[in-house]
Design brief:
By secondary structure, the chain is an alpha/beta fold. The protein is 35% helix and 22% strand. Helix 2 packs across helix 3.
């Protein structure tokens, strides 16, 4: 759903350098691929969403405007999260927006956080293995990780590597924007995620 609040937020994100160039509507259309992928897989809206590496708020702010459910925008850079805190605190912002500052590997192990989200999203967070490992402990069993996919790069998500994390690939869409839906089939092994920085330095696949 495009609202004056959302347009204002994304235009501000571009002005601050937190969102790429081009018409804001293009970023909204890209973010729409995340909810369309979710809705192609589940008939129910998620009740809690986490956006990894939210940056300028895409897709997180767009999903907040669309569903109006609890949506956590996570980023490791304080300058970005200060911007996001301002945006979700505006008078006309949808209810449910939260902002967390920190590394996903550490925050996923905080009390009361493990397996509390139906949906985790990632647009430009990290390579596939690191994204999956950093996301999986946040997800409840039966929840989904939806990740933006580059065009024409084949399957970047090997079944054996995903299974190590309790995930499986359910949907891979290329048009109009590439996204993949990974579902959490089993509880996360206590080993994952590994300590900060390790998922990217020593990827599982």
């Amino acid at each position: 759903m495009t609202t004056p609040w959302l347009l204002r937020a994304l235009n501000s994100a571009q002005e601050w350098g937190f969102l790429g160039p081009g018409p804001v509507q293009g970023h909204i259309d890209h973010a729409a691929a995340f909810w369309e992928a979710w809705e192609s897989w589940s008939t129910d809206a998620p009740t809690a969403v986490l956006d990894l590496g939210s940056g300028g708020g895409v897709p997180g702010l767009v999903l907040l405007a669309h569903w109006g459910v609890r949506t956590v925008l996570l980023d490791a850079m304080r300058r970005r999260t200060e911007f996001l805190e301002h945006v979700v605190g505006e008078a006309d912002a949808p209810a449910g927006g939260e902002v967390w500052t920190g590394r996903a590997e550490a925050l996923a192990r905080q009390p009361g956080v493990e397996e509390t989200f139906d949906l985790v999203t990632a647009r430009s967070f990290a390579p596939p293995a690191a994204t999956a490992e950093c996301a999986v402990r946040f997800l409840r069993v039966g929840g989904a990780l939806i990740v933006s996919e580059p065009p024409d790069e084949g399957n970047r998500w090997p079944a054996a590597g995903l299974a190590e994390l309790g995930l499986s690939l359910r949907v891979l869409r290329r048009e109009p924007y590439g996204v993949v839906v990974l579902v959490k089939d089993a509880a996360t092994n206590v080993r994952y995620p590994r300590r900060v920085g390790v998922p990217q330095k020593r990827p599982l696949f």
